[in-house]
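Teaching assistant here, posting this on the class forum so everyone can see the example we discussed in section. The complex has two components, and the goal was to see what a joint structure prediction looks like when all of them are supplied at once.
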Amino acid sequence: MVHALEEIRRLLKHAGALIDIHPVAVSSPVEIHQKGRIDLVGHLSVRSWCEDYQQADNALAEIAQRGLFTAESERVFDSLTHYPSVAEMRISLKESIAKFARDAQSAGEGIPDVEALAARADERMQAAASGAELIVRERTHISRLRPT
Amino acid sequence: MAIRVDPENSETGALFDMADLDGQHVLEIGCGDGRLTWRYADKAARVTAIDPVAKQIALARENMPHPLRDRIEFKDIGFEDFAAASAPSAFDIVILSWSLC
């Protein structure tokens, strides 16, 4: 990661900026939104993802410490993914876990959580009013860094 | 109905708060299927968007809104190879969209 950031610095103009966007290393609430109310179904927590996000934070801290970039601004926002059905959420989350897993072990780790969340969401959605929306909320960090 | 990612535009709102893209040459690393690229490219002068997954880049090219066709160049390439073939100081803004991790 640090090498990639060094290369990015080389590609940037002196007055340019690096914008990094990545999720915060915390679990993601799965929610049902209906009639202005938010019901929490549970939290999605994939250990290997959180480790990756933490490594990204560490890499940014290291390049700042080495004087390659200066952090100018940062904030956190929520990125919401709206799923049309529980089945689509289940498939999509499983695909994401498989796609971004480092190895077979970490790929398998998050699947039981997804199945449990999907089962709970299924019960709640069946009891919910029509128009209820199934949403995964991800805390996301954005920062602007200047090459120094 | 399809899966909708950030229909509230929280991500682009945060991006525009962080960077003035007007007239800038932007490199987006890890653009995937262009989900974020579409949302800011009309502000930039030019966007080079790269991703190592050929299938994702094919989707991005296929679904690119027509008005953005002259402005965005999608490349199916990993960052290391792209950087090795690129001149220094080529970009005003680099966006790492969920790709540092």
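For the discussion questions: The interface with chain A takes residues 1-8, 10-11, 13-15, 17-19, 27, 29, 79-80, 83, 86, 88-101 of chain B (CB under 8 Å). The mean pLDDT of chain B is 94. Think about how each of these relates to the inputs above.
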